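Lab meeting, item 3. Inverse folding demo.
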C-alpha cells in the first residue's frame, strides 16, 4: 500500500475539494464576511440542507450587521424558523449590535476581536478568519477531527474533548499560505461531511484511503463506539420548539397553557419550558392573567 507524506495527503484533500466541493452560497467569493459569520453560527448545530434556505432569507433581509441590529429580537427569532437552538438567533443579533457599536458595522479579522463578540467561540472565530478573510488558521470542527483522527491516528471517532496534542497535530498539518490553508480547512471539513462520515465512511471513494491509518488497521472500533442518540420526542427541547413554532405562527400574543396544539404536554413540563424560554429571553409573558406569551 503506497504511503503518502503528510503534505501529499493534505494536497490530495485540497485537490479533491477543488473537484467535489458543494456549491454553497457562503462559499461564493462574493459572500461578505458577515454572510460567512452568519453561516458558521447557523451550521454549528444544523445540517447544510436546512441552513441553506434560512441563510438566504437572512441575507436577503439583513445583508449587513446594521440591518440585523436594527431589527426587533422577535423578528430574528421568528426568522430562525426551525433551525433549532434558537438562542443562536438572539446571539447573532447581539453580535450584529456589537459589530455596529464597536467595529463600524464590519466584521473584524483578528482572533481577539472576533472572540470578544457575543456568541463567537474559538471554532467560529477560526472559521470566519479562514473562510471570510483567507487567514492562516486551524479550523477544527467535528468533521475535521474525525478525518485527521482516522487517517493519521487510526481512531474511529474523535474523543469528546479536544486535547492539546490533537490540536497541535492538526495545526501542524495546515499548509503555509492563506489560500492553501483555507482550502485544506474547507476540504477536510467537506471530506468529513460527505465521505468520512461518522457511521458509514465511504473509504472506497476517499482520496486518503491509500494512506489512511484507520483503513490500514482494519477499520477497527466503529461498531463498538457508543451511538450518540438523542431522544427527542417529549423532551423539553422539543416542547420549547413547539411553543416557539406556535408563537412564530401567531400575529399577536397567544394563551399557551391549554392551547389545543399543546394539550398532550404535561402542565408541569409546559410551565418549565415556558419559564426557561422567558429566562433565555426568547419569549415574553405579555399577560399574566391570561397566560399569554409572544416572541
Ligand atoms: S479512507 Fe475512510 S476512514 Fe480513512 S479518511 Fe477516508 S473515509 Fe475516512
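The presenter then showed the designed sequence:
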Amino acid at each position: 500500500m503506497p504511503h503518502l507524506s503528510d503534505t501529499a495527503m493534505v494536497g490530495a484533500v485540497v485537490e479533491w475539494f477543488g473537484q467535489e466541493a458543494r456549491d454553497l452560497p457562503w462559499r461564493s467569493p462574493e459572500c461578505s464576511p458577515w454572510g460567512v459569520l452568519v453561516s458558521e453560527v447557523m451550521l454549528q448545530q444544523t445540517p447544510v440542507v436546512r441552513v441553506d434556505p434560512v441563510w438566504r432569507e437572512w441575507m436577503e433581509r439583513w445583508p449587513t450587521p446594521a440591518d440585523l441590529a436594527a431589527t426587533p429580537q422577535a423578528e430574528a427569532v421568528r426568522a430562525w424558523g426551525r433551525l433549532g437552538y434558537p438562542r443562536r438567533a438572539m446571539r447573532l443579533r447581539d453580535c450584529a449590535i456589537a459589530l455596529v457599536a464597536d467595529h463600524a458595522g464590519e466584521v473584524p479579522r483578528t482572533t481577539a476581536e472576533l472572540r470578544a463578540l457575543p456568541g463567537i467561540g474559538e471554532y467560529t472565530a477560526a472559521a470566519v478568519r479562514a473562510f471570510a478573510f483567507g487567514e492562516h488558521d486551524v479550523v477544527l470542527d467535528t468533521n475535521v477531527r474525525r478525518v485527521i483522527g482516522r487517517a493519521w491516528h487510526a481512531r474511529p471517532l474523535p474523543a469528546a474533548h479536544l486535547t492539546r496534542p490533537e490540536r497541535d497535530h492538526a495545526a501542524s498539518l495546515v499548509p503555509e499560505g492563506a489560500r492553501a490553508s483555507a482550502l485544506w480547512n474547507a476540504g477536510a471539513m467537506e471530506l468529513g461531511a460527505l465521505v468520512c462520515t461518522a457511521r458509514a465512511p465511504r473509504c472506497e471513494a476517499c482520496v486518503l484511503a491509500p494512506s489512511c491509518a484507520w483503513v490500514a488497521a482494519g477499520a477497527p472500533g466503529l461498531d463498538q463506539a457508543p451511538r450518540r442518540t438523542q431522544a427527542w420526542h417529549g423532551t423539553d427541547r422539543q416542547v420549547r420548539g413547539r411553543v416557539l413554532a406556535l408563537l412564530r405562527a401567531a400575529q399577536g400574543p397567544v394563551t399557551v397553557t391549554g392551547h389545543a396544539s399543546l394539550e398532550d404536554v404535561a402542565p408541569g413540563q409546559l410551565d418549565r419550558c415556558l419559564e426557561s424560554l422567558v429566562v433565555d429571553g426568547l419569549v415574553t409573558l405579555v399577560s399574566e392573567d391570561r397566560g399569554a406569551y409572544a416572541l
